[in-house]
Specification:
The chain is of the alpha+beta class and about 250 residues long. It contains 12 helices and 4 strands; from the N terminus they run βαβαββαααααααααα. A 4-stranded mixed β-sheet has the order 2-1-3-4, covered by helices on one side. α1 links the parallel β1 and β2. The structure holds glutathione. Glutathione (GSH) binds next to loops.
């Protein structure tokens, strides 16, 4: 049995989709990141980076003690090896897939996160419009570039890593399905091959199931007080602030 530490966000969906695709048995443990669960001592023992998703496999590949993992890229690679699905064993095909997995982890995810921050959130955090303009231009420009990279790759290949559906698609789709919302409604049509791939991957039953896992958790309308608390937790996480949040969570757990 696998415990999935999860909240319904793009990084969480990567792993719920993978588990559904592989047909592995799992149970979901809520990590309410707006409520501060990521700072609780029991979660930090699994993920010292105070970010979900994470997992514990109680019957791990290779045997032995339960295996705890964080970072969605490592988790997908592990689940692919465990299930024997969506990642070739043959070296050339394996590394062709992994380069796109690392591309997503280092490029699309962080750039979309920062673009979203400057475009949608930062206006509540700064009164200086110059900061917003610079940050939005920098990160939305980079997201636009990355759309072009995917479109070019998908013009010559059915899937990101070639002819086969793989963990490269599973890790990229949860972010890419939100591109329209970020770069502007309808603008995805400028990237027809990306649009074709988004629809094809999005139609897979396991993708829909993983994408919708506990979506009701994030649909609940927060009170103004809860929203203020959520922003205070999630933004400007310096070391001092994280240490204080960690200590407060440990105290309240006693
Ligand atoms: N590189 C990490 C990113 C994980 C991540 O950023 N998770 C966000 C939610 S999408 C989170 O847990 N945020 C909590 C926080 O900022 O304290 C991964 O891919 O697993």
């Amino acid at each position: 049995m696998i415990d999935l530490f999860y909240w319904p966000t793009p990084n969480g969906w990567k792993v719920s989709i993978m588990l559904e695709e592989c047909g592995l048995e799992y149970r979901t443990v809520a990590v309410d990141i707006g409520g501060g669960d990521q700072f609780k001592p029991e979660f930090l023992r699994i993920c010292p980076n105070n970010r979900m998703p994470a997992l514990i496999d109680h019957a791990p590949l290779g045997g032995g003690e339960p295996l705890a993992l964080f970072e969605s890229g490592a988790m997908l690679e592990y689940l692919a090896d465990k299930s024997g699905k969506f990642l070739a064993k043959e070296p050339a095909a394996r590394y062709r897939t992994l380069q796109w997995v690392y591309w997503q982890m280092a490029n699309l995810g962080p750039m979309m996160g920062n673009a979203n921050h400057f475009k949608n959130y930062a206006k509540n955090l700064t009164d200086d419009p110059a900061q917003l303009v610079y940050g939005t231009k920098r990160f939305c420009g980079e997201v636009d570039r990355l759309c072009g990279v995917m479109d070019a790759q998908l013009s010559a290949n059915r899937y990101l890593a070639g002819d086969e559906y793989s963990i490269a698609d599973i890790i990229t789709w949860p972010w890419a399905c939100l591109l329209d919302r970020l770069i502007g409604e309808g603008t995805i049509a400028q990237f027809p091959h990306l649009e074709r791939w988004l629809a094809e991957v999005g139609a897979r039953p396991a993708v829909q199931k993983g994408r919708n896992l506990h979506k009701e958790w994030s649909e609940r309308q927060l009170t103004e007080e809860e929203e203020t608390k959520r922003r205070a937790l999630l933004f400007n996480q310096t070391n001092d602030k994280v240490r204080a949040l960690r200590e407060a969570a440990a105290k309240s757990a006693k």
